[in-house]
Design the sequence.
């Protein structure tokens, strides 16, 4: 069952949506080798080391793109989340010809500038990585928030950080994730999508046939993106104490 906004999409976008929805998993070869980066990231967040969070986030994402054999993506970790009436900005993915692929994430809440919970932060980071995979490996011309997308995100979280997060305050990360999903439909459209390059992204890794699993990493050639500028933002819960 597609999300409600599916009905409002053009025929071409519907096709992209269905492709996205059909792939439930991103399989990362040797994902366990990334665990040290995850642990370093957790430690950095728990000790509120901003430098550590930046370094560990980059190392982790580099590790993922390396294992997947896809083009790298720049990771910029900013401090305080921007906010507006719809909530706080958690993460942002852009892909332009000039700058290439870029992930921005924020490590402190808008309301109190508190460090974001580890699990929430990690999920946001990996969420943006899934957008990157959509464009650079799946060859999609847009990256919709479909059920398949969220399942790919979950599969990534499981593989990258399966057993971690136990020390999280009960329910905190979970609540945020659910919230994110509630909002998945409204913020699903890429902003700044100037036209449609329809299948212009080259990749050998595609959801084949019934396409339950996306296996990447076997494709050697780096991806040359000719997709028009793309911006995807991830808004989450509004800070309750946000200044009105
Ligand atoms: Zn998103």
Sequence:
């Amino acid at each position: 069952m597609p999300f409600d906004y599916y009905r409002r999409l053009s025929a071409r976008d519907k096709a992209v949506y269905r492709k996205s929805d059909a792939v439930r998993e991103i399989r990362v070869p040797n994902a366990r080798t990334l665990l040290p980066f995850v642990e370093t990231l957790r430690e950095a967040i728990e000790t509120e080391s901003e430098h550590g969070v930046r370094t560990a986030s980059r190392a982790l994402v580099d590790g993922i793109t390396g294992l997947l054999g896809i083009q790298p993506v720049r990771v910029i970790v900013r401090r305080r989340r921007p906010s507006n009436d719809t909530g706080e900005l958690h993460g942002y993915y852009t892909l332009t010809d000039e700058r290439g692929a870029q992930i921005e994430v924020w490590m402190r809440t808008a309301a109190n500038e508190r460090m974001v919970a580890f699990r929430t932060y990690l999920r946001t980071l990996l969420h943006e990585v899934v957008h990157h995979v959509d464009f650079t490996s799946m060859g999609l011309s847009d990256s919709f928030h479909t059920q398949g997308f969220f399942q790919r995100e979950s599969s990534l979280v499981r593989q990258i950080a399966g057993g971690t997060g136990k020390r999280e305050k009960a329910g905190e990360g979970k609540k945020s994730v659910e919230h994110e999903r509630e909002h998945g439909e409204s913020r699903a459209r890429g902003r700044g999508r100037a036209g449609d390059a329809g299948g212009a992204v080259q990749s050998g890794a595609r959801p084949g046939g019934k396409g339950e699993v996306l296996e990447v990493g076997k494709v050697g050639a780096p991806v040359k993106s000719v997709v028009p500028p793309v911006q995807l933002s991830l808004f989450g819960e509004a800070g309750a104490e946000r200044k009105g």
About this structure: Confidence is low (pLDDT under 50) at residues 165-228, 237-244.
